[in-house]
Amino acid sequence: MNLSNIEASGHEMHALAAELYPLCRSITGDGVRSTMRRLAQDIPLEIHEIPSGTQVFDWTVPEEWNLKDAWIKAPDGRRVVDFANHNLHVVGYSIPVREKISLVELKSRLFSLPGQPDLIPYRTSYYKKTWGFCMAHHELERLPDGEYEVCIDSTLSNGSLTYGECVIPGATNEEVLISCHTCHPSLANDNLAGIAVGVALARQLASRPRRLSYRFLFAPATIGSITWLALNQAVISRIKHGLVITCAGDPGIVTYKKSREGNAIIDRAMRHVLKTGGAEHRLTAFHPYGYDERQYGSPGINLPVGCLMRSPHGTFPEYHTSADNPDFIKPECLADTLTKALEALEVLEHNARFVNLKPMCEPRLGNYGLYGDGGGQRTGEFDELALLWVLNQSDGSNDLLAIAERSGMPFRKILAAAVALERAELLRREHA
Ligand code: ZN
């Protein structure tokens, strides 16, 4: 992808996130359904509906939640909180309510952030039936005494859990899983940025030749990936690598959280791409918290799925607040995350092991058109040192990624050298 393409895709991803921002998503319901329909305009997305009550391992697909309207009226009749202004105002999965209550009772139902008094927090209560509102702390403090009227016009009923799946087949049925969560309402970095990068990745991959097949999953966190894994156990063994993409658009440095295995090919590929990229970055060990990498990395599933993000959840002040809005995510940061993911996937596509067919000392490269007459001069896209590294390390046990890691040279250079040596019949490709 050239530079102007990357820049354009950054703006496209940002526009998609901004377009999806107003929708009231949750783990089920019309907000996530509309989100999936919008993604289906850009990529070949199959939208699945899994009925409430479906047993998925130790979990059950919950009732579907939808919210029409919600507000709090002050004693003077003024709406002091209105869902129409911001969907973070309502605790996700709130049961319906319509009653008159005192300020003291109301306050027991209100969530705010005293340390960030201008921001609305994000709260949910999926599995405990309750209701509540979220609001800016400085507005909460200004509420006068008296009788309030509250209304949450929501429904919780048998329906379904909605997720989207997009398969982009390659020459083999070895799969790469890309997973993005879809269950947050108006929050930009924490869900929409990951979704936007996922969509852009799918579009990029669809336009390239592919050895691997790619499966994109856009599903609510936790219950969505658990549902997919429970219902697709026959597919799991095809997945050879995977990435959860989240918090993908903030201005922080790129973070890669390793898979449970810790040294899987995806872990080595991401580490290599980040190290040779030269920019500041963060590599963190696996831990069983965070996003859906914890489901993919549960012991019975045990897929090598890492997590690509910028600032990790909970580490930025905008996290789970109304400040995580489209202004917080940047086109150039989305584009940078996309580039890193594409570079790592390129390593997965082309990584291979080779055997040197002239292993008795160095072959005389000039005889194969790989050196200029004077010897030692660079030819084409590969350089002499890359040729020597590939020849030296290709005893059948080292893959190209290992050679790139050991030499400190970018994978692309090592790959170009291997391709030239294979063409010169100095290398034979080993099939894994
Ligand atoms: Zn979150």
Write the layout of secondary structure elements.
Blueprint: H1 3-20, H2 30-39, E1 46-51, E2 55-56, E3 59-60, E4 64-73, E5 79-82, E6 97-102, H3 103-107, E7 110-111, E8 133-134, H4 137-141, E9 147-157, E10 160-168, E11 175-181, H5 188-206, E12 213-219, H6 223-231, H7 233-236, E13 239-245, E14 254-257, H8 265-277, E15 281-284, H9 293-296, E16 305-309, H10 331-350, E17 353-356, H11 384-393, E18 395-399, H12 400-407, H13 411-423, E19 427-430
Zinc ion is lined by residues 184, 190, 313, 320.
Question: What number of domains?
Answer: 3
Architecture of the largest domain, CATH level 2?
3-Layer(aba) Sandwich
Total strands: 19
CATH class of the largest domain: Alpha Beta
Ligand set: zinc ion
Low-confidence stretches: 372-377
Q: List the total number of helices.
A: 13
Structure, described:
This protein folds into three domains: 251 residues, Zn peptidases (Aminopeptidase), CATH 3.40.630.10; 91 residues, Domain of unknown function DUF2172 (Glucose Oxidase, domain 1, 3-Layer(bba) Sandwich); 79 residues, Arc Repressor Mutant, subunit A. The protein is 32% helix and 23% strand. Strand 11, helix 5 and strand 12 form a beta-alpha-beta unit. With 432 residues, it is an alpha/beta fold. It is elongated and about 95 Å long. Zinc ion binds next to loops.
